[in-house]
Design brief:
Elements: H1 2-9, E1 14-20, H2 24-33, E2 36-47, E3 50-60, H3 66-74
Antiparallel strand pairs: 1-3, 2-3
Length: 85
């Protein structure tokens, strides 16, 4: 839903995020939505005695499955200053 809001409601071309490798559920959830890994900073964060990578991910408007998001877009109010959507 947030990807749909950013891409189609705010007119963004891409969305970038960062996530830590110890948060495996988040990494899988982002991949399921369509985010792809751009790169990583190895050992950039320490949790206790362990070090984990920071993973940078992004998705572009061209990669978003618009058929699945069109129904969600109808649920969003129009952005301020946007002529009739």
């Amino acid at each position: 839903m947030m990807v749909a809001y950013g891409m189609f409601h705010l007119g963004l071309h891409n969305i970038m995020l960062r996530v830590y490798t110890f948060n495996e559920r988040a990494v899988r959830a982002y991949q399921k939505v369509g985010f792809r890994e751009l790169g990583r900073r190895r050992g950039s964060v320490r949790l206790g005695a362990e070090r984990f990578d920071t993973v940078f991910m992004d998705i572009t408007a061209d990669e978003v499955d618009t058929s699945a998001l069109r129904a969600q877009i109808r649920l969003l109010p129009p952005a301020p200053g946007t002529p009739g959507v």
